[in-house]
Recover the amino acids of this structure.
């Protein structure tokens, strides 16, 4: 019986290690572990280099490293000095909700990568998603998903 218990514990430990490795490789982390960065980033750049102010202007544009700043432990690119200045005047207005991680994933307790081109504005706040399917799920119940995100994120 003791041998079976030892084998079971080793198996469970191995499975947990494999699961955590898979999640880390795919940049998916349980929020409760607190291992995610404040803002989703790739190579220390937020939103894949898109100018966060342009999400609010209806014409998404890539930023340039010439117009960049650091905020929330990540680099933000902008398409013009005017947009950089606008961001610097009120960064909290522009930074995506839940750090730009996939909003739907956050609602389930995970910080998961998002596609910066799949987004919506809701109540003048920016939400980013991993794909169009989860964005549609959000649009069908935004208040419920935001509430779930708030309970997971805080």
């Amino acid at each position: 019986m003791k041998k079976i218990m030892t084998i079971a514990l080793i198996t469970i430990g191995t499975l947990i290690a494999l699961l955590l490795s898979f999640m880390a490789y795919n940049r998916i982390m349980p929020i409760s572990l607190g291992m995610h960065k404040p803002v989703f980033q790739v190579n220390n750049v937020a939103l894949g280099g898109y100018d966060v102010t342009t999400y609010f202007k209806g014409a998404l544009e890539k930023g340039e490293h010439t117009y960049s700043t650091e905020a929330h432990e990540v680099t933000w690119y902008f398409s013009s000095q005017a947009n950089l200045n606008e961001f610097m005047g009120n960064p909290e207005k522009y930074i995506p909700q839940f750090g730009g991680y996939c909003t739907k994933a956050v609602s389930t307790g995970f910080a998961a990568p998002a596609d910066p081109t799949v987004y919506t504005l809701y109540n003048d706040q920016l939400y980013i998603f991993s794909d169009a399917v989860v964005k549609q799920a959000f649009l069908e119940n935004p208040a419920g998903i935001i509430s779930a995100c708030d309970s997971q994120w805080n």
